[in-house]
Amino acid sequence: MSLDYISVFQLHANEDFATLKSLCDQFYSEASTQPFNDENIAFVMWARGVKGFLDTYPKRLSELEITIPPQEMKEIFQAYGVIALRRLKNRELTLYCGNGPLHSCAMDHDYEAREKRAHQHQGSDTVDFDLWMNPTVVMKWPPNDRSLSYFGKARYELVRGEDMSAVDFRWPLQSTLHIVRQILQPNGRCSGNTFTMILHKPGSDEAADKKLGRICEVATTCGLIAEVGPRKERIVTQNINARDNDVTFQLIAEPTVDRQMSSDAT
């Protein structure tokens, strides 16, 4: 029998959130000591900010929504290297946001009640590197193979970013696209990419068009179909930042591709 929310919260409160504090110390200490390069610098600074906020405001841990008991949380971390606050249970996944966030260390911003309601993301699992965003699971995106395996057999109808992208040219493009394909169910969609915001009318930016062409080319080798439209009405990306004249972009998982493709395929 699973414990209810109040019982789980009490288990954490009884130990003064010692397990969660310990896991955060391990997770963010490792992240903050990574090499300062284009791929890691944002996460290094981000990790230091999250850890600093925890050291300053430890009592705010009680504001997080936690439904996983301390011992199970510890076992998940040991197995997958992620901090699971709640269980994966939805058919949609939102990257880089939480369900009713408390504070953004990246923006140094406390969320007011109105903002929390706007970022509830009901019906969606959430992934964020920032514990204080109150995500379903705290992890780095794109994940390594160990963290990716935490998703298990979970397959999503929709994977979308919150002002950020599931795919970025700072990361290895092909392996990232394989990760996207692996967590999408057949015909599932990945939308809300940064391309929606940076690629305006086709041909207006030659460098951007080259990037778009490259991602479309690589996507086909990863079991994904890339779709581009000249206006947001053509493809519903559910990206609130899309403007009428923006290029819309999404990835669709081919229905016949093996779901078990490795994320490190070349």
Give structural notes.
- The protein has 266 residues and is of the alpha/beta class.
- It folds into 2 domains: 1-154, no CATH class; 177-266, no CATH class.
- The chain contains 9 helices and 10 strands.
- The chain has helices at 5-14, 18-32, 41-56, 70-80, 113-118, 145-148, 173-183, 195-198, 206-221; strands at 83-84, 92-95, 103-104, 109-110, 124-128, 137-138, 156-161, 184-191, 224-229, 248-253.
- The longest helix has 16 residues, at 41-56.
- It is globular.
- The chain starts with a helix and ends in a 13-residue tail after the last strand.
Rg over CA atoms: 19 Å
Order of helix and strand elements from N to C terminus: HHHHEEEEHEEHEHEHHEE
SS element count, helices: 9
Tell me the span between the first and last alpha carbons.
43 Å
Q: If you average the pLDDT, what whole number results?
A: 83
Number of domains: 2
Low-confidence stretches: 195-201, 231-245, 257-266
Instruction: Give the percentage of residues in beta strands.
Output: 15-25%
**How many strand elements?**
10
Instruction: Write out the strand line-up for the largest beta sheet, numbering strands in chain order.
Output: 1-6-5-2-7-8-10-9
Tell me, briefly, the overall form: globular
Largest sheet: 8 strands, mixed
The proportion of residues forming helix, as a percent range, comes to 25-40%
Structural class comes to: alpha/beta
